[in-house]
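Q: Hi! First time doing this. I have a protein sequence and I read that you can turn it into a structure. Is that right? Here it is:
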Amino acid sequence: MKNVLLLALGAITLCGCSSMQKTGEEVIPPVVVTKINEPIKLDGRLDEKVWAKVPVYNLEFANDAAGLPMAEYNRVIQDKYEGAKVRFLYDDKYLYVAGELEDDDVITYLNRNQDLLYRGADTLEIFLSPVNATHYWELYATPSEYRTSFCFPAGGMLGLQEVFSKSMLMKGFETAFSVNGKLNDCKVKDRGWVTEMRIPLAELAAKEVKFAPGEKWGILAARYNYSHYMYRRQLSSYPKLPIVNFHLRQYYAPVIFR
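A: Yes, that's right. Below is the predicted 3D structure, encoded as structure tokens:
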């Protein structure tokens, strides 16, 4: 682990080089996923020093108010943007994701896994897409013990109820969280919440594409942020997308394994 800082600095340098993905409209900087030799304790605390030594990716406001009448649009964008940032690590068994989310009103109204959690809670979503395959994953973490993982066989299958209803929770996929404030109490202004995700590499490889050096993957981090203090719920993502649609896989950040 003593080489992690050097690796991270080298990876940041790479972000300005040929590792960037070109879409024809803009250049998408990569996401660096840093290799570690010791497992991360999943507790929603980010206590391990290694989290402070790897690249940080700030989610950007996704303005889905475009197209609304002007008065409505102007009111929506008056709300303060609550930022979020993510980091990535991996070892021989897992991909780890750390999310730190500013939030003045942490909300979750859930009672089960494997649901469309963004409909009932503040949610951090991670999309993982192998470039040379048709399938991709969508994994949710919330400020609760509940989580979801969907594997879409192909983009052309997105939206089919059959795909959602038959998707099983990924074996070994775990999340943890901590809340700086008081959950589901709008009388108390919160500071935010933290989440950690642990995604088994064996489950990703079960679709015949390993999440490993030598393979091409794309990543998107996306967020649903609800609040009693906002006029409208906020969306954000990294990388920033040309329109607000979290399934635009050509715009996911290319993964660099370090």
